[in-house]
């Protein structure tokens, strides 16, 4: 990571009887973010769902009504940093993410960090569960040490990448997975991640400048090596901007950076487009996409899951991909939240949104969850069981992709 000092939000210890706190595993502010600025590199290109542009910036064909006074010149030059509550777009229909060419250069990517979201309650339920999973919390899993993913990532985990976004706290990171799009077989432009990686929940709105970088730091270069690395080594497949994003209504209305509210439906889908305007789909570019299982399979039916991500909080630095494998258990945070999957894993902040893979009935790997929360002492992770709400998000974003290309 950068040799400059980092700003990290203070971690607040839980004060409940069980004394166990859990935290979201997303991202955090980068030093010097206020000085970061787009560096236009080429004339704007129209393509996909983008409309007219100015030098170095491409716009959606339709801007949200809330942006009726939108000035593309000001946006390119940093107006997106205005997080005034009245100007912070919140509703699903309001998402907008103009492509600013060159904004996410290797140095800016390297300096983005994780954001900590504390949860005070370790869970409810007695661990018996009967015949169903709902309302159950199993005993804490034993920690599983996160292992470095094999390099090159574009061969060992081609569907996995890093998500970058700008928030009121600064530049942040999450993880994501290229997922299959039934409406565009073999040509998916969809990425699954966590809801809190794209939207602030009940206290705010959509984050900005959201991009996906598949196989980030493909060869697992160390910080000093990454300082000298070429853009192709940092982002071997390039940068993909989210031209649309959607998360669950539950996350938008209930999601919180404390208390774990919204975590059980902390799921989002991005539709992306290459910054270079190549027109080639994400799936064709990386050579892989993972199907998603929205049937909320029981923990008894899943012998093992493997979670991937780019953990950024110590002892990790966010530069390299890691993975954990474990048999999932159940976690219920509160009566207002449905039961989640939980595995032992020492990955930290930055792994949020990373995919959880399990073997499906066909024998192929399928996505069954994404990382949402984990303990402050980094012993386990939890993710939502993907059901009707998550499938509705997926279908909505897929529908917007129909007929493209």
Amount of beta strand: 25-35%
Number of helices: 8
Low-confidence stretches: 1-22, 26-48
Overall pLDDT, averaged? 84
* SSE succession: EEEHEHEEHEEEEHHEHEHEEEEEEEEH
Class from secondary-structure proportions: alpha+beta
Shape: globular
Condensed summary:
The protein is an alpha+beta fold and 405 residues long. The chain is built from eight helices and 20 strands.
Structure overview:
The protein is α+β, with helices and mostly antiparallel strands. Helices cover 12% and strands 27% of the residues. The strands form 4 sheets. It has a 6-stranded antiparallel sheet with strand order 5-1-19-20-16-15, with no helix packed on it. It has a 6-stranded antiparallel barrel with strand order 7-8-9-12-11-10. Strands 6-14-13-17-18 form a 5-stranded antiparallel sheet, with no helix packed on it. A hairpin with a 4-residue loop joins strand 19 and strand 20. The longest helix is centred in the last third of the chain and has 14 residues. The radius of gyration is 20 Å and the shape is globular.
Layout of strands and helices, then pairs:
Blueprint: E1 22-28, E2 50-54, E3 57-60, H1 72-76, E4 99-100, H2 106-111, E5 113-119, E6 147-148, H3 153-156, E7 160-167, E8 170-179, E9 190-193, E10 208-214, H4 223-227, H5 231-234, E11 240-247, H6 249-254, E12 268-274, H7 282-286, E13 305-309, E14 322-326, E15 329-331, E16 340-344, E17 355-359, E18 365-370, E19 373-375, E20 380-384, H8 388-401
Antiparallel strand pairs: 1-5, 1-19, 2-3, 3-4, 6-14, 7-8, 7-10, 8-9, 9-12, 10-11, 11-12, 13-14, 13-17, 15-16, 16-20, 17-18, 19-20
């Amino acid at each position: 990571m950068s040799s400059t000092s980092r700003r990290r939000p203070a971690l607040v210890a839980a004060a409940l009887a069980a004394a166990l706190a859990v935290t979201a595993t997303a991202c955090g502010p980068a030093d010097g973010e206020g000085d970061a600025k787009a560096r236009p590199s080429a004339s704007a290109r129209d393509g996909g769902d983008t409309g007219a542009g100015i030098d170095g910036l491409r716009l959606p064909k339709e801007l949200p009504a809330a942006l009726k006074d939108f000035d593309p010149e000001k946006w390119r030059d940093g107006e997106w940093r205005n997080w005034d509550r009245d100007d912070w777009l919140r509703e699903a229909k309001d998402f907008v993410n103009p492509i600013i060419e060159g904004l996410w250069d290797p140095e800016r990517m390297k300096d983005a960090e994780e954001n900590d979201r504390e949860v005070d309650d370790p869970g409810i339920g007695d661990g018996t569960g009967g015949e169903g999973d709902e309302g159950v919390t199993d005993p804490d899993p034993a920690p599983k040490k996160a292992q470095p993913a094999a390099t090159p990532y574009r061969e060992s985990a081609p569907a996995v990448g890093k998500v970058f976004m700008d928030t009121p706290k600064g530049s942040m990171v999450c993880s994501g997975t290229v997922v299959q799009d039934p409406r565009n077989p073999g040509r998916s432009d969809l990425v699954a991640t966590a809801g809190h990686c794209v939207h602030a929940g009940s206290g705010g709105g959509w984050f900005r400048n959201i991009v996906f970088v598949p196989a980030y730091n493909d060869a697992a270069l160390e910080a000093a090596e990454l300082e000298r690395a070429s853009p192709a080594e940092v982002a071997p497949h390039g940068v993909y901007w989210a031209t649309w994003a959607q998360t669950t209504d539950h996350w938008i209305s209930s999601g919180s950076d404390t208390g774990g509210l919204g975590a059980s439906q902390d799921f989002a889908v991005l539709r992306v487009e290459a910054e270079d305007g190549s027109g080639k789909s994400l799936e064709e570019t990386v050579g892989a996409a993972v199907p998603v299982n929205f049937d909320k399979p029981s923990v008894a039916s899943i012998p093992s899951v493997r979670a991937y991500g780019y953990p950024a909080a110590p002892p990790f630095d966010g530069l390299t991909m890691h993975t954990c494998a474990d048999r999932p258990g159940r976690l219920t945070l509160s009566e207002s939240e449905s039961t989640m999957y939980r595995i032992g894993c020492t990955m930290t902040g930055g792994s949020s949104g990373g995919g959880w893979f399990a073997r499906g009935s066909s024998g192929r790997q399928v996505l069954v969850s994404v990382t949402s929360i984990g303990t402050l002492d980094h012993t386990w992770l939890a993710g939502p069981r993907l059901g009707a709400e998550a499938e509705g998000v997926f279908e909505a974003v897929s529908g917007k992709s129909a007929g493209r290309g």
